[in-house]
Structures are given as C-alpha cells and as structure tokens.
Amino acid sequence: MEIISDKPKCHCGVFGIFNNETAGVNTYYGLHALQHRGQEASGIVTKSINDKGNSIFNLHKGDGLVSEVYADSKIFKDKLIGFSAIGHNRYSTTGSSDSQNNIQPFVVHYRLGNLAVAHNGNLTNAKQLREELVNEGAIFQTTSDTEVILHLIARSKLDDQVEQIKEALERIEGAFSLVILTDDKLIAARDQYGFRPLSIGKVNGSFVVASETCAFDIIAAKFIREVQPGEIVVIDESTKSENEIKSLRIKENQIFPKKHCIFEYIYFSRPDSFIFGHNVDKMRRRLGKTLARKYPVEDKDNEKVIVISVPDSSNTTALGYQTELEKEGINSKLEIGLIRSHYIGRTFIQPGQEKRKIGVRIKFNIVKGVLEGRTVVIVDDSIVRGTTSKQLVNLIKEAKPKSIHLRISSAPIMHPCFYGMDFPSKDELIACQMNGDVKSIEKYLGVDSLEYLTIDEMLEAVSEAGINNFCTACFSGNYPTEVDVAFKKEMYEL
Questions:
Q1: How far apart are alpha carbons 131 and 138 in whole angstroms?
Q2: SS3 245
Q3: How many other CB atoms are found less than 10 A from the CB of residue 443?
C-alpha cells in the first residue's frame, strides 16, 4: 500500500498516438509525463501488422510506476511494436485496485475488428448500464466502469465503428475523456460537460492525444487544440493536417453547459500544462494572489513574513501569494521551508492513522533556520482528511516559529465527487466532520489561523476561463448531472 496523502487523487491519465514509427516508446514518454495523474498501474497497447497483413494488438500492463512497468527495454523491441498506440496511467476510483484485469487499456476483438480503450473519469450510470448488459447476456471481465463502454460498442447493430462508438457514448453519463484505438483509427472523445481535459497535438506528421499538454512537450509535439466538450475526434490515414481531423458531436441537437473540474487548476494538472483554454501556472498564481488579497498575514512585530509551500503541488500558488503580499505592502519572503523526498517507495509503510505520522517525516523535512522565530504562512491547495496537515503543522512547530498560519487555495471539501476524483467517504472529510466550521478545523490542526478561499473567491480567481464554466460539486454539493443512487451508495457509503 502507498503512503496515504491528504490530497484528492485523480482517476487517470490517457495518451494516444497515430502513425508514428516509435509509437510505443513515445507513449511511454507521454505516460511518464502524466505520472502525477495515476501511480497505481500503467498499460500500453500498440497496433502492428502480422505476416498475413492482419492487425495485431499488443498489450503490456502492470502494477506500479511507469518506470517500473516498462523497466525492461526489450518490451519495446519485442512486444510493443507498431505505428499506433494508446496508454493509460491508473489511480483507481471505481473498480478494484487489486485486480490486474482492471488495468487499462482494455482490448477486445469483435465482429468489426480490434478495439482498445483508455478512460479518464467516472461514469455515473455505469451500474445501471452494467446490470442491463448482464441481463442481455454480456459477460464482464473486470469491475471497471470503462468495460461498459466496450460492451456497448461491441453489441451495437450498426456497421460503422465510428457510429458504434457515437451510439455508445450517447448512452453513458458522467465524466469521460477517452482514447480509442481501432485497426485503422485513433479516436478521442470528451463528455458533454468537459469535466476532464483532453488535447490534440502533432509531432513529425503524427497526431497525438493526451490528458495534458505536458505529455506533448516531452516528445516535442506541437499543441494543436483541445478536444471540445461533447466532441468525437477521428484520426486516420487520410488525416494529413489539423484541418483534416474529422469531428462529430456525441449529441448533435443538445447544448450542455461547460463544467470543468476546478481541481484541475487547483491541484491535479501540472503547472506547465495548458487546459480549459489557459495555462495552469497562470491560474494557480491567480489563486494564490486572491488568497493573499482576501486573507493576508502580517507579523505582529513588523518583521518579515515567511511564506512556504507544501511541495510540490502548491509551489506556484505560494509564489502568487507572496508576490501579492508585497503588492499589498506586507514585508514578506518566499522561502523553501519544507524539503520533500522524491524517493519514497510505494510500499514503504502500511496505511493507518499512526503509520501516517511517520509517513509525514518520510516525505517532508523542515529547514529550521528558515522557520525559527518567524511568522510562517503555509500555502496549500486543499485539505481532505486533515490528518497529514495536522502532522505537518506539528513538524513545523519543531522549528519553533513565532506563529503558523495556514492558507488554502480551495474551499472546504464537503461532498464526494462522482466525476473522477477519489475522496474518502463524507465521514472522513475533515470539513464535513466539522460541519464546515473553519475555526474548529483550525483548532484541530493547531495553527494560529486558518483560511480557505470561498467558492465565489475561487471562481473569481479563475474567471478568465469563465466563472460559470466550472464544477464545484465537492464544495457546494451542486452536481451538474443526475447521479444514480445505487452508484452513490456503492462508491461513498452515503
């Protein structure tokens, strides 16, 4: 088991490439850049042609980090050969994390040929569709909601693969960013609300698709555009330029509001990625600046305020916070007060409250000379259970600072997510336990002050991307879609 983090987990990262002589290797690099989106398991499927001229789908998958799953370079010489590929990094939300069968991409051979799919997100009507398919005779090999998509496609009576995929996507609900590989096409699709990011790029005449643009940078691919919410993109041998990318709508006559996951800007996506029409780095700095304007910290003796981040996810936010403090006339300095170890084995400790205490010390160490006798502001992006945050505060107290102030660049997390973020049950959410009372959380954490951004302040910070274009369900409880009651019970013990 991995060290429990006081952070939400993203479901997955996906990558696809078409018509490239090193498709498997480039997919490996793309998944390496997307490692932050899932560290539990990884898989790659490549398409090659056998001696008889038939398409063969080659699959390699396993538990662990990308560097561990593909550690043997012979995999790319002997197994993952071919000119097209899709890949997937996994952090399980729906579907058991214990089964190798649940590691994507999923591959099937059916009447119209080979098909492989990789999925980022959660389908909110998967349980209902699964029961319907089982009653019709479908046999499932996994417990993942993604397999529902494969069955819907394979059981379609239509005779065109793209139309089969469109028909299947018309039936599923919730969050999905998909890459699909067929014998002659790379297909990408995004749900109508655009919960999760998905982008198109190009490298040396080959088209690529990825959850984030940082996966393009590692292979020197040029970003073309994002897959639009509700769009199906089809790339095949006839696609020579970006203008020739085939595009169709999942539901042609219906208009859906955009509901991007705001946590992609707050925490999930890498700061060097471009998603939802904007740079993540810019949005994260703006969150920090808003946090500083609304909730500044001053030293009672007019000494310099020390601002530190909880590395690495809040580095950019802390930079924005300290910059804005200076603009507000508050003498401050951004310092490295916490050193993070990047070499922790995934199996180092077992989970549990007592074990998490040593987990914080394994992951972080303090720079005492920076913190001693100072007014310290810790900038972080979120608090989930509060356990790790409490231990981190206790660790910083060992440096004997003058005072400790915690600033969070999101609102209190009060509700479960059904669209691909992995939170614990409501009973484990510290903000829910404390009925949203920030002062009670402050007391529990043992800090001199605690402030979160409100939902409105959070939206104000990212308003350049459209103030009404975000899903805030985990803060507000206002879900953009209907969520099947059985699905809620299965996932979150509501």
A1: 9
A2: coil
A3: 12
pLDDT score of 29: 98
C-alpha distances in angstroms, 42 versus 87, 100, 212?
A: 7, 10, 16
Provide the residue range defining the domain that includes 63.
9-256
- pTM score, two decimals? 0.93
369 φ, ψ (degrees, to nearest 5)? -65, -25
165, 213: one domain: yes
Reported as half-sphere exposure (CB side, CA atoms, 13 A), residue 304 has a value of 11
Closest to 4 (Cα-Cα) out of 406, 414, 441, 348: 348
Taking CA atoms, 485 is separated from 120, 122, 124, 255, 488, in Å, by 22, 15, 9, 25, 5
pLDDT (0 to 100) of residue 483: 82
Long-range contact set of residues 144-147: C-beta below 8 Å, sequence gap at least 24: 144/94, 144/95, 144/102, 144/104, 144/106, 145/94, 145/95, 145/119, 146/95, 146/104, 146/106, 146/117, 146/118, 146/119, 147/106
Indicate whether 264 belongs to any domain: no
Let me know: does 14 contact 178? Beta carbons within 8 Å.
yes
For residues 371 and 65, give the distance between their C-alpha atoms in angstroms, rounded to a whole number. Answer: 34
Q: 37-65 pLDDT, tens per residue? A: 999 999 999 999 999 999 999 999 999 99
Question: Residue 371, SS3?
Answer: helix
pLDDT digits (tens, 9 = 90+) for 2-38: 344 566 665 699 999 999 999 999 999 999 999 999 9
Domain boundary among 218, 240, 256: 256
Specify the CATH number for the domain of residue 237.
3.60.20.10
288 with 252, same domain?
A: no
Which helix H or strand E contains 130, and what residues bound it? helix 126-135
Tokens of 275: 């998603």
Catalytic residue among 12, 261, 417, 471: 12
Rounded CA separation 278/260 (Å): 12
Degrees (nearest 5) of the Cα angle 262, 264, 269? 165
Indicate if 432 belongs to the active site: no
CA-CA-CA-CA dihedral for 269, 274, 278, 282, to nearest 10? 60
